[in-house]
Design brief:
Helices cover 79% and strands 0% of the residues. The chain is mainly alpha-helical. 2% of the residues are buried.
Length: 85
């Protein structure tokens, strides 16, 4: 996997998790929640693509990708369980 795609996916995951957590903790209508999540995805992609463009030629090993996203999942799961307990 190239490093640019890796970082874009990582940043997008964090932004989406933050948006979902924000909408879950507040009492919005379903339409407003979907708009917030959609805008977070669009803005996250718009920010991340130019930010990580310089890494487009570099590579990341599959092991690093797996370990990073697994640890990110554990952190998100722990944070969500603390927050929504």
């Amino acid at each position: 996997m190239n490093k640019q795609r890796f970082f874009i996916t990582l940043v997008s995951s964090i932004i989406i998790f933050s948006a979902v957590t924000f909408t879950a903790l507040n009492d919005f209508s379903l339409f407003i929640e979907m708009v917030i999540i959609f805008l977070s995805v669009v803005i996250g992609q718009a920010i991340a693509i130019p930010l990580f463009r310089r890494f487009s030629e570099q590579r990341v090993s599959n092991k690093i990708v797996f370990v990073t996203f697994l640890s990110l999942l554990v952190v998100f799961w722990s944070f969500a369980s603390i927050l929504f307990d």
